[in-house]
From TrEMBL:
Name of this protein: Transporter
Bilayer topology: Multi-pass membrane protein
GO molecular function terms noted in the UniProt entry: glycine:sodium symporter activity; metal ion binding
Positions that bind Na(+): G142, A144, V145, N446, L511, D514, S515
Organism (species): Adineta steineri
UniProt cross-references to InterPro entries, sorted A to Z: Na/ntran_symport, SNS_sf
Length: 770
């Protein structure tokens, strides 16, 4: 072969640099032996025996094409560099060794447990990746199936009439939740980037990532406080008897722990039934009240309050009169909040490699505890009342806009769409990870967990209704603290109550930590993806975020903290999430193009994948159904905005103004970045407006080998909106050109006609005329 002549001279030190440059690319062994790589994935490799002076036959591996296989180990050779950068022959210096005594080792397959994708991620991108097969599944399951299913769903269902809440809930699940869940996981896996850089398909939409980071930040502020409540209850459970099982010094006047004497029959000797429901007995001093015989009258006079209700409001929270009444700092809550953030930092300080293993336990353990509590609750008398209230829909409540708003809000919250966590978690996937199966499984598991938790908590509500004689909807006070009232009372009905109390609150701690892991990692990924040099300081950035959220969460440790939790839960997760969701659909479906996105998914998972086959269903949702529904929700709830209240307390007007300021702050990331992009790229750099809505050159997979795969399928494309504009412009130019050509033809014809009219008659014509 021709390559052997310059190779022979290179080995003997006689070849000139000009001859080597004209040959194929070769690499050099660290001992000075020239060698070409073998087993190229594009071409076959020819192995030739060549007798080097003074030595035996050596096997020289000649690669006919200068490309390399990333799955091969080339003994440290850098095949991406030009051959002129290597020294051969006499230029090797004093350390040159005789190649005759040194056999040339052949290339060998890498025996590392990591794939080539893993190696490139760790060396070039320096970005983590899931190491286990089910790391992403359990992480996304734990992120989605958090306190939203156990804590938030029951109290929203209780507030909105029980079973009727499930009707809009399931409608929004299939029309909003699953399409957006699939969109975000596909986008994150395709780009392997955080919530800002993944929007390089349309740079003007990069601000969506900033808004997602802000909404995640404010969510973890009050989410950590809920975990802090659970930690405090967990510590207080290490006693022989639970304090909230009976009324104590912290109890109010209506606290009732013995419902056996709540009403009496009043048919004993020397007793008198008063028509008002009171029961009297005759004594020497006259009539003396000894109880009540009518349950309605008793409840109207003094509504019974569970010990767990008073314990939570009076002892744990020391609740004030309203959101503006802040007088004391509850130090047990401060320590509990600090413990929550210490746990979060301890699990995230080493990145996703540690948190990916923690979620295996934190995702499965809650189901065991819920099942145990459920079995106990379903055997209590009166549980059927609660389940009946839970399953029987009051269709008249469907006319209430708050039911629909809360259902859509809960879908966004419980599936964590528009919060950025799904994009971040899926960005650590391998490029060819199957997405649709995880999407369907996680969404259905999330919904089933919420429904299952509802069966558990409403069974105990039915039991409380039975022993107190009240209606199910009036048993306990509604609000975010429902889970910390009913569940603690539920464990007091179990034998060995302190043990089950510890296990239950450990479950709540794990559920909250699962959701906080992904939210904190989302914020960290935004910072490190923007400034790559900070990736080496991952631990420090995580610590700064935890300290900042802890400092802001101190407001929730005051005696007005529960009001601020209700405030953040209302304004942080409704309008911002809806707006981000509709902008995601617009960007994918219209600006970048849903057909282009289909090609990306096809290149990622293959043309035969079920996600590609049913893509048209998601395409219809992204283009029409999902944005129309979200827009209708925004308009309808803006017209009929539900009143913000906690139990019987109505929030003041200034809290609404502050809430809209919070909404504006979250969405300001999207607005301000769009303005920055217009000013910087169009006005200052004087680029065309196309750069705002057309994919950047860096758009696509993070790894180079995956970029080649995408280019193999469709060779790159421009945004759909840019294509439409170009077609309209070309059509307009074509019409103008056609009109211009027609006018030119008419002008030429007119000139020819005028010239013909001015031309004198010919001689033949004159003679003929004569």
């Amino acid at each position: 072969m021709l390559v052997l002549d310059p190779l022979r001279q290179a080995l003997s030190g006689e070849a000139s640099s000009h001859q080597i440059l004209n040959s194929n690319r070769i690499s050099q062994d660290p001992r000075g032996t020239a060698q070409l790589p073998a087993n190229d994935e594009v071409s076959s490799t020819t192995t030739t025996s060549y007798n080097i002076e003074g030595g035996n036959n050596q096997q020289i591996y000649v690669n006919e094409y200068p490309q390399y296989d990333p799955n091969l180990s080339y003994h440290g050779y850098d095949l991406s560099r030009d051959v002129s950068e290597y020294k051969f022959g006499a230029d090797n210096g004093p350390n040159h060794q005789d190649v005759a005594n040194r056999p040339i080792p052949p290339p060998r397959k890498s025996h590392s447990n990591q794939t080539s994708d893993d190696k490139v991620v760790n060396t070039k991108a320096d970005r983590g990746q899931w190491t286990g097969r089910f790391d992403f599944f359990f992480s996304s399951l734990g992120y989605a199936v958090g306190l939203g299913a156990i804590w938030r769903f029951p109290y929203l269902c209780y507030r909105n009439g029980g079973g009727v809440f499930l009707i809009p809930y399931f409608i929004f699940l299939f029309l909003l939740g699953i399409p957006l869940f699939y969109l975000e996981t596909s986008l994150g896996q395709f780009t392997s980037q955080g919530v800002v850089q993944c929007w390089r398909m349309a740079p003007i939409f990069k601000g969506l990532g900033i808004s997602m980071s802000l909404i995640s930040f404010f969510m973890i502020v009050y989410y950590a406080m809920l975990v802090g409540y659970s930690i405090l209850y967990f510590v207080l459970s290490f006693r022989s008897k639970l304090e909230w099982a009976t009324c104590g010094a912290w109890a109010g006047p209506n606290c009732t722990d013995d419902f056996s004497t709540f009403v009496m029959r009043c048919n004993y000797e020397n007793t008198y039934k008063d028509p008002n429901g009171r029961c009297y007995t005759w004594t020497n001093q006259g009539l003396t009240q000894i109880g009540w015989w009518n349950i309605e009258s008793r409840i109207q006079y003094r509504k019974p309050v569970l010990p767990s209700d008073d314990y939570f409001n009076n002892f744990i929270l020391n609740k004030s009169q309203g959101i503006g009444y802040i007088s004391t700092m509850e130090w047990p809550l401060v320590l509990s909040l600090l413990a929550a953030w210490v746990l979060v930092f301890a699990c995230l300080c080493r990145g996703i490699k540690l948190s990916g293993k923690v979620v295996y336990f934190t995702s499965i353990f809650p189901y065991v505890i819920l099942l145990i509590l459920g079995i106990r609750g379903w055997t209590l008398p009166g549980c059927g009342r609660g389940i009946y209230f839970y399953m029987k829909p009051d269709l008249s409540r469907l006319a209430d806009g708050r039911v629909w708003n809360d259902a859509a809000n809960q879908i966004f919250f419980v599936l964590s769409v528009s919060y950025g966590g799904l994009i971040t978690l899926s960005s650590y996937n391998k490029f060819n990870q199957k997405i649709l199966g995880n999407t369907i499984t996680v969404c259905l598991a999330n919904i089933l967990t919420s429904i299952f938790a509802g069966f558990v908590i409403f069974a105990y509500l039915g039991y409380l209704s039975y022993i107190t004689g009240q209606d199910v909807e009036n048993v306990v006070s509604e609000g975010p603290g429902l889970a910390f009232i009913v569940y603690p009372y539920a464990v007091t009905t179990l034998p060995a109550a302190p043990l089950w109390s510890m296990l239950f609150f450990l479950m709540l701690i794990l559920l909250g930590l699962d959701s906080m892991f992904a939210s904190v990692e989302t914020i960290v990924a935004v910072i490190t993806d923007q400034i790559h040099a900070l990736r080496r300081y991952h631990t420090l950035i995580t610590l700064i975020i935890c300290i900042s959220a802890f400092g802001l969460g101190l407001l929730l440790c005051t005696d007005a903290g529960i009001y601020w939790i209700t405030f953040l839960d209302q304004f942080n997760s409704s309008y911002p999430a809806f707006t981000i969701g509709i902008l995601e659909c617009i960007c994918i479906a219209y600006v970048y193009g849903s057909n282009n996105f289909r090609k990306d998914i096809k290149a990622m998972v293959g043309p035969k994948n079920m996600g590609v086959r049913v893509f048209r269903l998601f395409q219809i949702c992204w283009m029409f159904i999902t944005p129309i529904i979200i827009l209708a929700l925004i308009i309808f709830t803006s017209i009929n905005f539900p009143a913000l209240r906690l139990g019987n307390y109505n929030f003041p007007h200034w809290s609404y103004k502050l809430g809209w300021c919070l909404v504006a702050l979250i969405l300001s990331g999207t607005v301000f970045y769009a303005l920055y992009a217009i000013i910087h790229f169009v006005l200052i750099d004087r680029n065309s407006y196309r750069v705002l809505i057309n994919p950047e050159p860096q758009w696509g997979p993070l790894l180079e080998q995956n970029r080649k795969k995408v280019n193999y399928y469709h060779g790159g494309h421009k945004g759909a909106l840019v294509s439409v504009i170009d077609r309209l412009k070309n059509r307009t130019l074509s019409r103008e050109t056609l009109a211009r050509s027609k006018s030119t033809d008419i002008d030429i014809a007119d000139k020819e006609g005028s010239i013909f009219a001015q031309r004198p008659p010919s001689r033949v014509g004159s003679e003929s005329a004569v």
